[in-house]
Protein: 3-hydroxydecanoyl-[acyl-carrier-protein] dehydratase
Amino acid sequence: MHEKRSSYDKEALLACGRGELFGQGNAQLPLPPMLMFDRITEISEEGGEHGKGVIRSEFDINPDLWFFECHFQGDPVMPGCLGLDALWQMTGFYLGWLGEPGRGRALSTGEVKFTGQVTPDVKMLEFGVDMKRVMRSRLKLAIADGWVKADGETIFVAKDLRVGLFQDEAK
Structure:
């Protein structure tokens, strides 16, 4: 069992991506460039909008990030799906942090509403996930709501994010 901390720096997130934090075969974050945050600033089984747990992270933005060059040429903007992926990544990390076994997979989201965008002049994104329900029986599933802020302004929200953990079948 890993040490359950309340925050994680970039090196710990990279260790998670290599399968070292929660153990091989369990929840992993993607490695860069698909890792969509630089640090987890808060994680707790208490608090959040629904009182069932919270996770917060930050992502430093600079004009050299890979997606600005290709999405869209001459009109650089971060794809909204990457922000949504960050929220799914955090939700899966939360399940691993709880000590639940299995590989994480994004399953769905109920609703996504964009009200802003991320351009190269943005300095930092903040991501927040508020747990609504965590199923810890045979099925390991988290249902949560999330939001993304660019330099302190909310630019999108997602409702009913669903991430599950799946164990490899015995061979």
